[in-house]
Write a structure and sequence with these properties.
heterodimer, A: mainly alpha, 1 helix, 95% helix, B: alpha+beta, N-terminal domain of TfIIb, six-stranded antiparallel sheet, 6 strands, 10% strand, DNA-binding (chain B), WRKY_dom (chain B)
Chain lengths: 39, 335
């Protein structure tokens, strides 16, 4: 049971990581687009 | 920049290297590939991954697919992995926060630049407008009135006042077929621009004195809109040097005749009318002068004679021969 809970928690954290990574990707794109406007 | 690099970095959890990546100059924008798929995609095959981790990833993929659920034996390993993922999560959050901050800073900077450039543009357009107003007023008041309106704002006032005291207008009748915008006034000018104005089909040429920048006099020449045979020259400022042909002109001024050149001088130029009149008919004057010189002694011949005399006097043989001839003549005459 304990390992099941651990796995569940890991799934949650993994999904969160995935979301964060996606957000970072989008932010990177936006940032670079903005910077290219400056140059 | 490959997206796998970005993904690798996200797993590597190196905050500094990520910052370097987003701040790198001339870096191409990141590809628009979205991060979709399983957790397994996050792990690049090239990256060193522990066997244990791979098993876990496989297991998680199966869990996500809902195909199978195997019991996990090594709880400690799982807990360690959970810790690692949590710390990764935390670092990702920090990176995101920093990136957001950088983004907002950059955006503010960009907005500042945009507002500055728009202000500059507005100032430039106002200057251009004021300048064109001034020129159009000068052209309308051809018969002497060079007053400028002083209803503008303070920054535009000072240069206008300066010009008001020194601007002068000269109208010269020329051959209508002559398309050049040249007014011969005895000074040498350098043309630095030409433009077509709204109120006149013929272009306006801009000249500055060849002694510039020490002499700041400028001249604008344009054909009159009413009579294209009249060239209107507007002078700004006064020369701080002698005209190159002034001495020559003053010598021959008593002999010059105005051959049909209609000259009208306004404002401050009027006080020095004789000089200007001579300047303006310089071609006529030169013609008259040269004809006089042709009758009396052509300058070329005179020059040749002088050259010959100087070379002969320098020759000792010639001097001796001349002395002998003169003395012989004297002896003959006494005999």
């Amino acid at each position: 049971e304990e390992s099941g809970a651990l796995v569940e928690e890991m799934n949650r954290v993994s999904a969160e990581n995935k979301k964060l990574t996606e957000m970072l990707t989008v932010m990177c794109e936006n940032y670079n687009a903005l910077r290219s406007q400056l140059t | 920049m490959d997206s796998s690099y970005f993904l690798d970095k996200s797993l590597d959890l190196n905050l500094n290297s990520f910052s370097h990546m987003i701040n790198e100059d001339h870096a191409p924008p990141p590809p628009k590939r979205e991060f979709v798929g399983d957790f397994a995609l996050v792990n690049d095959e090239k990256a060193p991954v522990k066997e244990e981790k791979r098993e876990l990833v496989r297991y998680l993929a199966q869990v996500n697919d809902g195909k199978a659920q195997e019991p996990v034996k090594e709880e400690a390993g799982l807990a360690g992995e959970l810790d690692r993922m949590s710390s990764e999560n935390k670092k990702l959050t920090e990176m995101l926060a920093q990136l957001c901050e950088n983004y907002s800073t950059l955006q503010t900077h960009l907005m500042d630049l945009a507002s500055k450039s728009s202000k500059k543009e507005a100032i430039n357009s106002r200057k251009r407008k004021a300048e064109s107003d001034y020129y159009s007023q000068n052209l309308i008041g051809i018969d002497g009135n060079t007053e400028c309106s002083s209803s503008d704002e303070e920054p535009c006032k000072r240069p206008k006042e300066n010009i008001k005291t020194k601007a002068s207008r000269v109208c010269v009748r020329t051959d209508a077929s002559d398309k050049s915008l040249t007014v011969k006034d005895g000074y040498q000018w350098r043309k630095y621009g030409q433009k077509v104005t709204r109120d006149n089909p013929s272009p306006r040429a801009y000249f500055k004195c060849s002694f510039a920048p020490s002499c700041l006099v400028k001249k604008k020449v344009q054909r009159s809109a009413d009579d294209p045979s009249i060239l209107v020259a507007i002078y700004e400022g006064e020369h701080n040097h002698m005209s190159p042909s002034q001495a020559e002109i003053s010598l021959g001024s008593s002999q010059c005749v105005n051959h049909g050149s209609s000259i009208h001088i306004s404002s401050s130029m009027r006080s020095s009318a004789p000089t200007v009149t001579l300047d303006l008919i310089q071609p006529v004057l030169c013609r008259a002068k040269s004809s006089i010189q042709e009758v009396e002694s052509p300058p070329l011949q005179q020059f040749l004679v002088q050259q010959m005399a100087s070379s002969l006097t320098r020759d000792p043989n010639f001097t001796a021969a001349l002395a002998a001839a003169i003395s012989g003549r004297i002896i003959d005459s006494t005999n």
